[in-house]
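Lab meeting, action items carried over

1. Structure of the three-component assembly. Owner: GW. Status: complete.
Input record:
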Amino acid sequence: MHRREGLAKLTGRERYVDDLPLDDFLWGATVRSPASRGRVTAVRFGRGIDWSQFVVVDSQDLPGPNEILLIERDQPVLAAGYVRHVHEPVLLLAHRDRVALRRAVAAVTIEVAPEPAALDFRVPPRPEQIQYGADNVLKHLRIEKGDVERALATAPVVVEGVYETGAQEHVYLEPQGMIAHMDGDVLVVRGSMQCPYYVVKALTHALNRDEQHVRVVQTPTGGGFGGKEEYPSTIALHAALLALKSGRPVKLVYDRTEDMAATTKRHPARVRHRTGVTRDGKLVAQDIEVVMDGGAYVTLSPVVLSRGIIHAAGPYACEHVRIDGRAMFTNAVPFGAFRGFGAPQTHFAGERHMDVVAHRLGIDPAELRRRNLLRDGERTATGQVVNDGTDRVAVLERALALADYDKKRAANKAGGTTRRGIGIATFHHGAGFTGSGEVMLSSRVDVAGLPDGRIEVLSANIEMGQGTITVFTALAAARLGLTPDDVVVAEADTARVPNSGPTVASRTSMVVGRLVERACDDLRRRVNTGGRGKGEGLKRAIMDWHRAHPGGRLVGSATYERPPGIAWDDHTYTGDAYGAFAWAAYIAEVEVDLRTYTTRVTDFVAVQEIGKVLHETFARGQVQGGVAQGIGWALLEDCKWQDGAMANAQLTNYLIPTTEDLPPIRVAFLENPYPHGAQGAKGLGELPIDGPAPAVLNAVADALGVEPTTIPLTPERLMEIAERGARNAEQRRQ
Amino acid sequence: MTVHQPGTLREALDLIAGKPEAVPVAGATDLLVHWPARVAEHDRDYVDLSRIAELKAIAFRNGELMLGALATYWDVIHAGRMKEGFPLLVAAARQVGAVQIQARGTWAGNIVNASPAADGVPVLMAYDAVVVLASRAGQEEVPLDRFYTGYKQTRRRPDQLVVAIRIPWRAHDVAVFEKVGGRRAQAIAKVGLAIAHSAAGWRVVAASVAPTVRRCTAIERLLTDGTPVRGPDDLHPAIERDVTPIDDLRSTAAYRKTVMARLLYDDLRGVCPAFS
Amino acid sequence: MITLAFTLNGAPATVEIDPADRLLDVLRERLGLTGTKEGCGEGECGACTVWLDGLPVNSCLVPAYQVRGARVHTVESLDPAALEPLLVHGATQCGACTPGVAMTACWIVGHPEILASHSLRELLAGNLCRCTGYDGIVAGVQAALDAGARA
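Predicted assembly:
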């Protein structure tokens, strides 16, 4: 089955939030803080503008608490006299004319009495920089297994390393946007988002409305990658405040610069490894310290940190593990959800470090991984016994064979002014919410039988390119023996669909897809199929039911149930962190130009075991897109900070890969069905962002004989490392 | 905002003589970047040159190539005889943005916009291009290597328009264009180089390493004199005299100097006997 | 306001515009042709690609007054059947870059001779996509070219 909405997208008929026809509406805009931290001493409205023509909203206009409801309630909807980061929203304006509005925004001056800002998460804050708790630590988490100190003390070899990753901008091609209007006494908000019910909760809380008076509708979403997980709540609140005050529909759509400058990014991180190994390369102890930059508000940092540390020890067996993680408050624009959710940072460090260990021991990096990959029956860092029947070494072997690894590894690296190298990353990604998360979400999906015999899948999970509509259609059709044309997937409209949880965490196909299947089963139970079971018989039974119950609603339903044998302890951080892991081995081949220190990825092989491939084209597309984003993060995408603001908030200066920057990405899947996922599927969306960065840097290390530790590995950075290496080698010779 | 759309050059020159503050517009690929946000610039006068047919010509005549002020990168990439006669123009044009920009951006606009990171200017300068300026008072010709007076400053008077670029047709035995951008396509140059050798001598032009695109006369002298060069490091004294790179959003001064030396050395080693 | 007359998707069009309008604004806001997307407003992403007198251009960088008398084609003019290979090969995911990709793709397929001097990847470099890693796009365009060559 091809993408259901594919032709609408290709012909431009698909309408995104900025495309929706709207009558008699106002454009909204945000006036933001110019400073990183301080008291707002004045808001000046410039001369030459008739301010009576503008709707102006500030923090005084909030009907409820000035809080964006998320994990904590520390983030205001609009700054109330005090700002904690550059670009923090202070004031909202609306006007019928977009140009007049832009002039007005430029005419507002926000004066701030500056106070000492904390801008580097890697150094302990000075007393005057402390703004959260006693030490600016937003969240501290720890995983402990065995006795790390003793194991390190007796380990034959101990290898240390410090690794850093930079912020990454999502660059979904459709910038953030929302439309808010009143429909009678119901506030309606439409826009680009991943989590309609997050937006409902944020609106009800800060606007002091009950759920019956708030309706949120997701519009076709032009990419999210996590960037439209929590941030849309903010822009929805802003649009709603302007609509409430003006009594008119308000459209608030960011341009690219505002989107890049003011919305969330991937958390920068620094990870320190101290690893004990035997001389033949068996891991005996992993001591890992993870520090992430949370930015000026908590947002999702605690759970990003959590996923980061849970993945930090890699897919390896090691008896003694300690992982200490902290997310730090800084006066940066808050960091937030981004595909991978903390795991790409820790996998980068872990996989780069594996190669450093291999080089130290004189063991081939592939062999070091072979010796340590988890075998069934062994335990992860949280004590989760892995027993899924997947042969993780076979995943690696497949990738090595596809990449022709042994031959390329042995090949001559030199070639005039270029050097070639090959690098590996083996990694895993847990699908669904961590620990008890899915149980707490208690997601529900409905499948309705329609009077004409078709069925409608009702969920809050959204399409943002990953294929939800098509996959849900296929799952329901297969379950009920129907054709795809007999299946309708409902728009994610909270007035109609149940809360099936957010579209995040690689959970949609695996977890929610399974609920679709179970809701289909429930629907079958609710109609008397008279032995006609599925397909046409079921359709007739549905039509019969409606004839017998005119005007009635025929709905099958399913609510999440924890798979048997899963246990997690949130206090000790032990147990089954995820119902299932996807497993992968990625191999990058690179060519480095010694004249310019530019690194070109010349081949990329991505092999993964993901349970069951639900749609070959979509699955391959997810991997190729994730790899592209990972290569961008590894080599190109460099957020330049200036006093807490992104100085290169333009696509001209923040570079993502073009067609010319990527090789064809070769993808292979291994399948080992997971009994609790839809048709056996495990989560896939995030996995592919975890591996490319370490694989690419390991390839650069192989090409040049250096040990780069920081991404993005720009040519400027690589030149410094390589020249330093050359100078040191020269000194050693002398 | 007021837009004037003269149909002839004569009209355009009259207009601009009366409104020297008006901004001439050709392909608009620089002018319209982030345009909606730049509201202050909406309150100006613009003279749109796109209607003036006489500025569209590309002609080979009298031993030279004449590019009209509206000639685009795409026009040059696909013009007959260009690849044989002026391969550097084709090479540079293909490195400007992507097709969508090449189809609109003009060589004259690239000259007048005066970006130190321009892609078209280095190759024009290496070919000894001459900028033809016109005003009501008459025509004036300024060699491109003397056109820039400082960062974003040119010798064009406000009452003048660039109407053409003249490039002498010479046989070159060396012609190299190098662009190092942040990525392999659609990037702004961190270092740009054009190297050419003909009967007129050596031309070495660098971009993104000084306030303007500029000829590297110390390097040229070193090549003319046949000074022995045994490695990239031997070029650094001349590079220090020729360019003044800075640290900015896109790169560092150190990187730019090192890369410039290495590219020059690598490109010249095979063609210049003094390079070993 | 000034009056702008040009040929849009093969038919004459007349529209009142502000001199500061970009072609993109005229298409989307004055003519309601929202298929053309704004991804960056700086000529980097190519989501706003249209054909102007037969060549792909970024409509965010075209002053609307310059298209007087010109031929403009937008994504709305494309033949859905011609887009089938892109659909089949996974060239569209989120769809925000897709109208621009479709315009460049169909332009290439309509001018296969251009591939004698340019690679497919070079010609597609002006369309940024964050979802596909470009493989689905390149495969889709290649399939369309192959189908065209057979026809």
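2. GW to write a short summary for the group page. Key points so far: Chain B touches chain C at residues 1-3, 5, 25, 28-29, 31-37, 42, 46, 48, 50, 74, 77, 94, 97-101, 103-104, 185-186 (CB under 8 Å). Residues 182-269 of chain B form a domain with the Enolase-like; domain 1 fold (CATH 3.30.390.50).
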